[in-house]
Design goal:
Helices cover 69% and strands 0% of the residues. The chain is mostly helical.
Length: 277
């Protein structure tokens, strides 16, 4: 799948139509001299480049015929170039008819080409092994593959929980969720009471909520998820992992600065493009 630049397509289509109209007004039996063809050449080469970028292979191949006429040492008549231009117009129509185009709203496009990592720079830097699943979850939401998005988010959570477990010194962190959760809770409860323990407890609550609400159902083959459910889970996982960063990396000044993380206001936990869905 490629990103189809509609503005570039419209530009080159207008250029083809403009030159076709000009030649239609001229004497069809006249010779198109070398100087005029030399002026045509950069246009034809430019069209070919645009067609290749747009994935319009038939049009790109047809542009080669126009380039051959522009560089030919033999006599070339106006009607020959005009015929090729009309054929190119037909190729453009054929390409559009045979191709499938999907329109994305600005909200949906933000999941595929975000201005910054979907879960934030800190998560992207410190959980780089999970970056692919996070990105794929966003793409699945954008393309309305909501159940697939949930599976990618669950894979993300599995990796995050394993890293959390390693940080807490829990043995065999590759175990399944339920067993890890049962070991994580006592570790947190054994911490000295205070703001740091409260921060871990809040993070664990969100983790347990995600596990109970989504993880078990996802394992049933026939279970499907709606757009609202997928985006809600996306926001929950994002919030969990953003809050997890300063807990797992407490020695990094820019993340933790020796103090427990501040609770993120709910209005800031879900990015604007998520809340608008």
């Amino acid at each position: 799948m490629i990103k189809f630049e509609v503005d570039r397509f419209l530009f080159v289509s207008r250029e083809v139509g403009r030159l076709t109209h000009v030649l239609d007004q001229e004497n069809a039996t006249a010779v198109r001299d070398e100087k005029t063809r030399a002026e045509d050449l950069p246009h034809f080469k430019g069209w070919k480049t645009e067609f290749e970028k747009l994935g319009l292979r038939m049009c790109a191949a047809h542009a080669d015929r126009l380039i051959a006429f522009a560089t030919s040492k033999e006599m070339v008549y106006q009607h020959e170039v005009s015929r090729l231009l009309h054929e190119l117009g037909n190729r453009l129509s054929d390409e559009c008819r045979l191709s499938h185009f999907w329109h994305l709203s600005d909200t949906e496009a933000a999941y595929i080409e975000p201005k910054e990592p979907l879960f934030g720079t800190d998560v992207d830097n410190h959980f780089s092994a999970l970056a692919e699943d996070i990105a794929e979850a966003g793409k699945c939401i954008a393309l309305a593959r909501y159940t697939a998005a949930v599976f990618h988010l669950m894979r993300t959570m599995e990796g995050a929980v394993q890293m959390l477990s390693q940080n807490l010194g829990i043995a065999n962190p590759s175990r399944e969720w339920g067993k890890l959760l049962s070991d994580i809770r006592p570790k947190i409860e054994a911490m000295e009471k205070g703001e740091l323990r409260n921060a871990w407890s809040e993070n664990f609550t969100l983790l347990y909520h995600v596990k109970q609400a989504w993880r078990n159902d996802t394992m049933h083959p026939k279970q499907t998820y709606t757009g609202d459910q997928a985006t809600e889970l996306f926001a929950a996982v994002r919030s969990f992992m953003r809050d997890l960063c300063p807990l797992v990396y407490p020695n990094e000044k820019e993340l933790f600065d020796g103090k427990p993380p501040q609770k993120t206001p709910r209005s800031r936990r879900i990015p604007k493009f998520e809340r608008s869905l």
